[in-house]
Amino acid sequence: MRGRLFVMTGASGVGKGTVRAKVLERTRLFYSISMTTRPPRPGERHGVDYYFVDEAAFLDLVAKDGFLEYARYVDHYYGTPRKPVERALARGEDVLLEIEVQGALQVRKRLPEAVLIFLVPPSLSELRRRLVLRGKDTPEKIAKRLARAEEEIRSAHLFDYVVVNEVVEEAVGEFLAILKAERRKTPYMEEALRRALSRDPDLESELDEIERRL
């Protein structure tokens, strides 16, 4: 059976990367690495966190229809290379994307069966606190991110699920619960239903013998 596509999104600084890393530690998913034109942050590695490329290389892949989705966000491009995702789904693997809001909605148009999960902060003030304490952006860029975050949160009704990332472990637990519920939907439980209707000849004989003795 074809795999299931899960898409995580949310405002910058909401903790998508932290939640994603903990989810991947606890369940089996094919994680699709995104491509971006922004420079690596300290500790980020090419081919692990993102594929870091220049704008010319990114736009060349756009022209070749090489992305499942792509978007421009805070002066940089982000996109999901299409082929790795399609191959994993065809192998029957469940796939996780961690992408921007615009990109998630593009995926919904291409693959309506995708499950979209929106990660939100407890409040915009808390999101601002996290961005300030992260110390990676200028006040001007933080203001731009907050304005974009407010706009994005207003589109959350277009998504299947909303997870509030106030306490990381609780958010991870809720995310895993969503994965489990989606995997228990009837089309994905065909093998379990076949087993439920099966009979074990040895056990049946044993039960027949017990009934005769009663």
UniProtKB/TrEMBL annotation:
<dbReference type="InterPro" id="IPR008145">
    <property type="entry name" value="GK/Ca_channel_bsu"/>
</dbReference>
<keyword id="KW-0963">Cytoplasm</keyword>
<dbReference type="GO" id="GO:0005829">
    <property type="term" value="C:cytosol"/>
</dbReference>
<dbReference type="GO" id="GO:0005524">
    <property type="term" value="F:ATP binding"/>
</dbReference>
<dbReference type="GO" id="GO:0004385">
    <property type="term" value="F:GMP kinase activity"/>
</dbReference>
<keyword id="KW-0547">Nucleotide-binding</keyword>
<dbReference type="InterPro" id="IPR027417">
    <property type="entry name" value="P-loop_NTPase"/>
</dbReference>
<dbReference type="Pfam" id="PF00625">
    <property type="entry name" value="Guanylate_kin"/>
</dbReference>
<keyword id="KW-0067">ATP-binding</keyword>
<dbReference type="InterPro" id="IPR017665">
    <property type="entry name" value="Guanylate_kinase"/>
</dbReference>
<keyword id="KW-0418">Kinase</keyword>
<dbReference type="InterPro" id="IPR020590">
    <property type="entry name" value="Guanylate_kinase_CS"/>
</dbReference>
<keyword id="KW-0808">Transferase</keyword>
<comment type="similarity">
    <text>Belongs to the guanylate kinase family.</text>
</comment>
<dbReference type="InterPro" id="IPR008144">
    <property type="entry name" value="Guanylate_kin-like_dom"/>
</dbReference>
<comment type="function">
    <text>Essential for recycling GMP and indirectly, cGMP.</text>
</comment>
<protein>
    <recommendedName>
        <fullName>Guanylate kinase</fullName>
        <ecNumber>2.7.4.8</ecNumber>
    </recommendedName>
</protein>
<feature type="domain" description="Guanylate kinase-like">
    <location>
        <begin position="3"/>
        <end position="180"/>
    </location>
</feature>
<feature type="binding site">
    <location>
        <begin position="10"/>
        <end position="17"/>
    </location>
    <ligand>
        <name>ATP</name>
    </ligand>
</feature>
